[in-house]
Amino acid sequence: MTLTPELDPFKLAKQLSAKHLIGGKFVAAGCGEVFEVDNPATGEIIGTAAFGTKEDVDAAVISAKAAQKEWARLPARSRGKLVAECGRVLTNHVEELGRLVALETGKALRTESRVEAGVLADMFTFFGGLGSELKGETIPFNPDMLTVTVREPVGVVACIIPWNVPLLLMAMKAAAALVAGNAVIVKSAEEAPLTVLRVAEIMNTVLPPGLFNMLSGFGPECGAPLVEHPDVKKVSFTGSVETGRIVYRAAAEKLIPVTLELGGKSPMIVCADADMDQAVAGALAGMRFTRQGQSCTASSRLFVHESIHDEFVARVKAKVDAMVMGDPLDEKTDIGTIVSDGQLERVRSYIKIGEETKGATKHVCSSMPTDPKLKKGRFVQPVIFTGMKNSDRLCQEEIFGPVCAVIKWNDYEEVIAQANDSEYGLAASIWTRDIKVAMDATRRLEAGFVQVNQNLVVQPTLSYGGVKTSGIGKEASLESMLEHFTHKKTIIFNMK
What's the rounded Cα separation, in Å, for the pair 246 and 251? Predict the structure, then answer.
């Protein structure tokens, strides 16, 4: 069966309302309840999502467990070809998915959502080509024995994803798990369940029924029973540190492995010799201003050398001022919305904290939209605070919004120490023309994803994951598939 792309996201949202996808079919929530999904740009209700509970989790696990047994019997390359075919089919739906995710998350279509939909398809294509890499080893243990290792799937995998980049994060987890021979149950974020459900529908035109399931719901009613289910053998979670700890404790009770990608407070160090144009562009990309700063890798701690500080800040502000904030579905829009009322209140509270911070200066950027249709939208102007100290709350706590703290520095050893003075360790970058400084910094910065003179987002092949409270494990790479979605079995043949 081939699905025709639906480019009207409002119509598609209605079509997808009130459903899970279990066993290859749309089903209503077992409890019969739904919750509303709105458009963050207007506050209007665009659809509903099925209210998942333990009953739905049980049904999804039964379906996934049965499908996984047959799937694991396929040759790894055959599994890979089917996953790659998912990537090809998803490519035909990039525009549709970009529009729908823009509608339900508020991310601008041109600068964010369409790009994410493209990376979604690319991620499945990439992992689909790795089936032949599920290799074992021959171990020279004893000349009279043949000792080998093989990679085997773990079983049913729970993928719990957030709302900020739901397509990308779902793909990083699910594509790797599927190629490795596992079945997948995705639990979407309650703020963004519809686009992920559409992806599940599309993928089920390629994959065997039951192999890829999608549940919507809230943490206590849906997420918790999924993690705690005895037949779920692996959890891959992206979200807050607080929820990550809950997931980790629940998994520990069952002694099953977890991958956790949690919060961040990423430092960007700009040296006196940095290419100014390149670094300014890097600050814009790194802070994820076009995503309203709603990114765990956002470069929200900006360390700028005192000799270039004033010019650098002025140029960054001018660039953000030129960005258009507005309707996420409008091609002219650079910056969309904050996803929810709760997140909007959180961002505003941190802006107030910044205003009350001793020595801080507030620089408000861009302009609020003037379209009357958007007056109830969750828009907030990006803010840059200068005069900050690394010990200030804005420099230590993850905000998940368009609030950037700038710290002036003049001593290299001190700035490295300050960059590392954080509970987080997800991403970091340094901007310099001095290769020795760059090499030294990349070794000493305490982060799992360190870049020099660039601020790329996650891409297939780049092993991605944090240290410290930013998480456990890697994603988006061959390494992640082998280490986190298979287990190694040792087999010994006595040849005597």
Answer: 9
Check if 31 is active-site: no
Helix (H, G, I), strand (E, B) or coil at 276: helix
Q: What is the pLDDT of residue 1?
A: 78
Give the number of other Cβ atoms within 10 Å of residue 91's Cβ.
15
Half-sphere exposure of 210 (CA within 13 A, CB side): 15
pLDDT at residue 233 in the model: 99
CA atoms 118, 123, 126, 129: torsion sign: negative
Question: Is 33 a catalytic site residue?
Answer: no
* Annotated catalytic residue within 296, 365, 395, 404: 296
Cα distance between the two ends of the chain: 54
Superfamily grouping for domain 267-463: Aldehyde Dehydrogenase; Chain A, domain 2 (3.40.309.10)
Q: From the candidates 261, 265, 398, 404, which is the catalytic residue?
A: 261
Q: How far is CA 251 from the centre of its chain?
A: 21
10-residue stretch averages of pLDDT, the chain, 496 residues long: 95 99 99 99 99 99 99 98 99 99 99 98 98 96 96 99 98 98 99 99 98 99 99 99 98 98 98 99 98 97 99 99 99 99 99 99 98 98 99 98 99 99 99 99 98 91 96 96 97 96
107, 173, 317, 474: the active-site residue: 173
Domain 9-262+470-491 classification at class level: alpha beta
Q: Assess contact for 422 and 265: CB atoms under 8 A.
A: yes
| Cα–Cα distance measured from residue 453 to residue 458, given in angstroms and rounded to the nearest whole number | 16
CA 438 to chain CA mean position, Å: 27
436 tagged catalytic? no
Per-residue pLDDT, 457: 81
Q: Identify the H or E element spanning 405.
A: strand 403-409
Q: From residue 343, give the alpha-carbon distance in Å to each of 40, 326, 384, 402.
A: 11, 18, 18, 11
**Residue 173 annotated among the catalytic residues of the structure:** yes
**Contact predicate 103/328, CB 8 Å:** yes
Q: How confident is the model at residue 452, as a pLDDT?
A: 98
Contacts of 277 (CB under 8 A, 6+ apart): none
Domain positions in the chain: 9-262+470-491, 267-463
9-262+470-491 and 267-463 share one CATH topology?
no
